[in-house]
Amino acid sequence: MSKLALSIYGDKVLREKGEEVDDFGEKIRYFFDNMVETMIVEGGVGLAAPQVGVSRRIAVVNPEPENEKTLIRMANPRIIATSDETETMEEGCLSIPGIRGDVIRSRAIEVLYQDEEGKEYKLEAEGLLARIIQHEIDHLNGVLFIDHLSTAKKLLIKPKLRKLREGR
Fold first, then answer.
1. pTM above threshold 0.90
2. Which numeric CATH code is attached to 12-166?
């Protein structure tokens, strides 16, 4: 396994809609392994393929990074149901270092996804796990957490975003 390079705010891939995965097996398993390694090394709880420069519908999530049993590898994830109940919580992103902000998300979701072999799963998630999955699926659609922030907060972080974009 090896750590992958992170895409940072301003990289075009972060604004692209990822392509569906249809080539399951060894190659995709190796990519998942490298994504997990990168997520752990970078101290994240989730990572989407666009964050490592790959415009594919692939994400890894783990609300308890030290517990391998809570790791979920997702190909082609899609949310099929959301709760009416929402929660506001501060979020950050490995691709937008140094910036955090309050984001409103559904408290509970149902998601369909495939594993590295192409087997389909349905997962009901709530709380932190639901939030992480929504954040990562946003990445697969070219949406960043900063897009969910209030207008006032967006104005406050604008100089930091410019600095990130220019620092590439």
1. yes
2. 3.90.45.10
